[in-house]
Amino acid sequence: MIHLFQPQTGDEELAAVAEVFADKWLGHGPRTTAFEAEFAAHVGVDPEHMIFLNSGTAGLFLALECLDLREGDEVVMPSLSFLAAANAVLAAGARPVFCDADPRTLNPAAAHVEAALSERTRAVVVLHYGGCPGDIEAIAELCRERGVPLVEDAACSVGSRVRGRAAGSFGDLAMWSFDAMKVLVTGDGGMLYVRDRARADRARRLAYHGLVQSSGFGHARVSGRWWELDVPEIGRRVVGNDLTAAIGRVQLRRLPDLVARRREIVELYDRELAGVEDVLTPPPPPAGHESTHYFYWVQFEGGIRDEIAGELLAADIYTTFRYAPLHKVSAYRREGGPDLPGSDRAAERTLCLPLHPGLSDDDVRTVCAALRKAVAAHR
C-alpha cells in the first residue's frame, strides 16, 4: 500500500529518546523548555510566548479559551478546515461562522473572511490549507483594522513562510501540530504561540491545571513551603513532555531536508500530471510564499472524483479528501446556513494524493500512472 502520510523517524530520534530514559526525567522538563526555545527561534519569536503541548488540538482549545468568549459570540473560520477548530469554538461557548474559500487554492481570501464578519465576531481562525499560507497578510491586516483577534491554525505549515516571515507569526495566537501524520512529528504533540505576554503566561498556567507555580521541585530552593498551591483559575493538564520534546528537537533539525524532499515530490507530481486531460494540479504558491507542501491535491471535472479514489484504493494507493466542509456537518449545521459555492465545488472534485518524504520517485510515478489510467477509463 502506498500511504497518504508516513512519519520519517529513525536512529537519531531513538538516540534522543534513549538519552531521556538514561536521565530518568520523562515528563515536562529541560528538553521541553529547549524545544520551545528552538521552535521559537525557528518562527522568529520570543520563547516565553511558545508553549509545547500534548497536541495541536489542545492548542486550539487553549487559544480559544484564552479569548474569553461568551455565549452569542461568533468566530469566523473557513468551512474547509479540520473539525478540531470548530469543536474548540463550541467548547469555548461561541458559535462558528463559516466563510468560503477559493475553489482552487482551498484557502480563504480576505474578502471571504470579511463577508462573514458581524458585530458579534470576536475572533477569526484561519487554516493554511496544505501548508500554503494563502492570503494571510491581508487577513491579518483586516483583523487588526477590525480589532478582532486572529488565530492561525498553522498545523500543516511548520515550514511555511511569506516573504521570509513564518506562518503562525501573523496572528495573535497560533498552533502547530506534530502528530504522527504531520511534517514534523513527535507522535502526539503541538505548539502554541501567544503574542501577548500576559495572555501567554495565562495560557501556560491553564495548560497545567491553572497552577501559578507548576513545579514544586523547581520551587523548592526559593520557597520555604514549596508544596502549597496557588490556582487563580481552573485549568487542565495538556503540557508536552521531555520524551516527545526530544523527538521534536531532532525533527526540527531535520525539517529543512524533510521539506526539501516534499518539494521534490511535488515537482515530480507536477511533471508527471502536466497536461493530463480532466485533471487540475495545485496552483503554484504566489511569489514570496514558501509552502511546507503538506498536501498534494488534484481536481477532476465531470464528477469522477469518487470513482477515481476507489480505483486507486483497489490498486493499493490510499487517497482522501481533506477537509470535508464543516458547514455540512450535522454538529455545526444550522438552518439558513451560509451559501459557500467555492467550498462546495472544492469538496466535490478534490482528492489528496500520497505525499511524504518516504515516497520514492518510482512510488510517485506508480501513483501517477494509476491516476492517468483511471481518468482515461472514465473519459
Structural Rg: 21 Å
Spatially, the strands of the biggest sheet line up as 1-9-8-5-4-2-3
Provide mean pLDDT, rounded. Answer: 95
Q: Looking at CATH, which topology of the largest domain would you report?
A: Aspartate Aminotransferase, domain 2
Biggest sheet, open or closed, and with what strands and sense?
7 strands, mixed
The CATH H-level homologous superfamily of the largest domain: Type I PLP-dependent aspartate aminotransferase-like (Major domain)
Cofactor: pyridoxal 5'-phosphate
Pfam families: DegT_DnrJ_EryC1
Protein name: DegT/DnrJ/EryC1/StrS family aminotransferase
InterPro entries: DegT/StrS_aminotransferase, PyrdxlP-dep_Trfase, PyrdxlP-dep_Trfase_major, PyrdxlP-dep_Trfase_small
Task: Give an overview of the whole structure.
A 7-stranded mixed sheet has the order 1-9-8-5-4-2-3, sandwiched between helices. The protein is an alpha/beta fold and 379 residues long. The longest helix is centred in the C-terminal third of the chain and has 32 residues, at 242-273. The protein has helices at residues 11-23, 30-43, 56-66, 83-91, 110-116, 136-146, 197-206, 216-219, 242-273, 305-314, 341-349, 361-378; strands at residues 50-53, 74-78, 95-99, 121-127, 150-153, 161-162, 165-166, 173-177, 190-194, 279-280, 289-290, 296-300, 350-353. The chain is globular. The protein has 2 domains: 11-252, Aspartate Aminotransferase, domain 2 (3-Layer(aba) Sandwich); 255-378, Aspartate Aminotransferase, domain 1, CATH 3.90.1150. The protein contains 12 helices and 13 strands.
